[in-house]
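Escalation from tier 1.

The customer reports that the assembly of two entities below gives different structure tokens on two consecutive runs. Tier 1 could not reproduce it. I'm attaching the input and our single run for tier 2 to review.
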Amino acid sequence: MTTVGEALPELVLSASVRNIVATALASRDFQDVHHDVASAQQRGSKTIFTNILTSNGYCLRYVTDWTGPEAVVKKAAIRLGVPNYAGDTMTMSGTVDAVESLTEGELVTVAVRGRNSLGDHVTGTVTVLLP
Amino acid sequence: MTAVGDVAVDPSVDGAAPLVGEAARLVEEARSFLGRTPGPTRVARDPVNLPMVHHWSQALGDRNPAYLDPDGSSRGHLVAPPGMLQTWIMDAPRDPSAPSPSDEVMRRLDAAGYTSVVAVNYEHEYVRELLHGELVSVRTYAEDLSQEKQTALGPGYFTTTVYEYLVGAEVVGIGRMRILKFKPPVKADVGERVRPAVGRDNAFFWEGVEARQLRIQKCGGCGVLRHPPAPLCARCGSTEQGYVVAVGRGVVYSHVTHHYPPLPGVETPHTALLVELEEGVRIISELAADADPADVRIGLPVELVFQKVPGGQLLPAFRPVA
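Tier 1 run:
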């Protein structure tokens, strides 16, 4: 049984150049701000930064790492804050926000947060069904 | 693209400024594309497939067995990582002659001068899990468009694009991306720096600057060094004078960083330095434009550089010794 308020173990994610470029391309996001430092700087950013699909993917991964493979992801709602620049480190943390008992299982909503040296890069909720 | 006039803002109305002219017409036109009429359906280039899942899984470090091993969960078959929903249609071919309603909104905001974009919210309902071999398609519509908002990034509009993901006719996921389309702030024209007043007593100094030398006046009578230049020696009273060229090293004796009010030709924050040169005299100068005011402290070793200030005047400046 999952209880409201239960904390998930933290997950530390390196925002290395390699990770930022690899994740952007793996999500088929070829925008230059995710792989080309000069272009990112020309557009006013410090350097390249994590793309949105990846930030969302990290939130889902963070929750399903904790639940295990039986969980079915139903919803995710994330809010984007400060950029996750190359060279930084993002620490994911989370707390169980709501638990609903359904006939097909437990519907668990986790409040997640990804924080780097600049502040909150991503905050939001991920809802999974645990059969 | 049509020429676009400036947006007139009524300063008495915060956040909901009335628009006039071409920009206002474009934004109102953009509103006419809001609603639940989706644009053309775009079909993914590739069906859900294991090589792309492997690539994603490895890049994000997501080793969930449900994505990688058919026996990794009680499902008995592989499912796609839900986070990849948009990935499947990222390079789905577009027909440029058939823009979607959200494309129409973006085009008008671009034309009205709101050319920069930052995503604010990214929300998904994963209606069901995707199976390998399924071909995903997507159609989008424009859900809302705010009034003009004053944001930290500049004035702009929030707008939401809804993505309906389909397999055949079945809706398998709904995505909502809320973005801010904003006008990037124009770097303020700070004007030109006041030119130095050059006279008989200090001409040698400014000629030195042009030659990229920092010249210190030397009394022709007693040999004492002095700065700023003066017509006679405060120690011996001599009017004879020459100069020496400073080696260009010193330490910060004092400093102050100016933020406000604006001054002609001065980009703020601007750090004025009082530098004690190795030769023993002090000179008022400034921090080099490429140095960080936060690094400045009393006693900091600094070295001389020459830099052009707004208006083109060459001036001596100092930066921390690397």
